[in-house]
Write a structure and sequence with these properties.
Layout (H helix, E strand, L loop, with lengths): L1 H39 L5 E7 L5 E7 L5 E10 L9 E10 L3 E6 L3 E4 L23 E2 L7 E9 L5 E5 L2 E3 L11 E4 L4 E4 L6 H9 L1
Antiparallel strand pairs: 1-2, 2-5, 3-4, 3-8, 5-12, 6-7, 6-11, 8-9, 9-10
């Protein structure tokens, strides 16, 4: 009888140890998931999109809907319209930062291109206040453009580098190359208040309770 009781006791102890290990592993997985969500919380509130207005012209938006600034911002968009015989053109825009709860807006009329300009596909430019004066440059204000968002890149409040491209938010340093041709943005983006701005970390914590 003593041997049977001992065996049963060992069996139950083993079951308890196994269950404890499984619970601990599950808690660890949940903790890792919560930590990853927290790391991504601010980056998830940064987005870019296109708006086509009533006259057919495009407006580009980049929004930081978090309560912290983002820095080292890279904004890439392209025109794939080929009806006018132009090669694909990409604008690779550099902004030092985007303040919290703001939206940066660029109108189609601010876009210039020079198919023979040959700007390198890895090169980013800060918007210029000056209108191009050399020959070959064309303004898109009166052109039938077909704009697409290529990617956005930025650093969050902790200095972590993120790229949003192909519908995915990735933790990475570099944006993929884009079609190369001469292209500049004339004038700084218009800054507007961002709707639905929130502290992403606090919001995340509330959703987990």
């Amino acid at each position: 009888m003593t041997i049977v009781v001992s065996v049963v006791g060992l069996f139950l102890t083993g079951i308890g140890t196994l269950m404890g290990a499984l619970v601990s592993a599950d808690q660890l997985d949940q903790s890792k998931e919560a930590s990853e969500r927290n790391v991504r919380a601010q980056a998830a509130r940064v987005s870019a999109w296109l708006e086509q207005q009533g006259d057919g012209k495009w407006r580009l938006h980049l929004r930081n809907a978090s309560v912290d600034p983002i820095g080292d911002v890279r904004w890439v968009f392209a025109d794939h319209h080929s009806a006018v015989g132009l090669v694909a053109t990409s604008w690779r825009v550099a902004l030092p930062d985007v303040p919290p709860c703001t939206e940066q807006v660029i109108d189609q009329k601010q876009l210039w291109r020079n198919p023979g300009g040959g700007v390198e596909s890895e090169f980013f430019q800060v918007p210029s206040q000056d209108q191009p004066t050399v020959s070959g440059w064309r303004n898109l204000e009166h052109e039938d453009a077909n704009l697409v968002i290529w990617a956005i890149g930025f650093r969050d409040r902790d200095g972590v580098a993120w790229v949003r491209e192909d519908g995915r938010l990735l933790k990475k340093e570099r944006i993929a190359s884009s079609p190369a041709a001469g292209a500049i943005v004339q004038g700084l983006p218009t800054v507007r208040p961002a709707q639905a701005c929130a502290d992403a970390t606090a919001e995340q914590g509330t959703s987990e309770r």
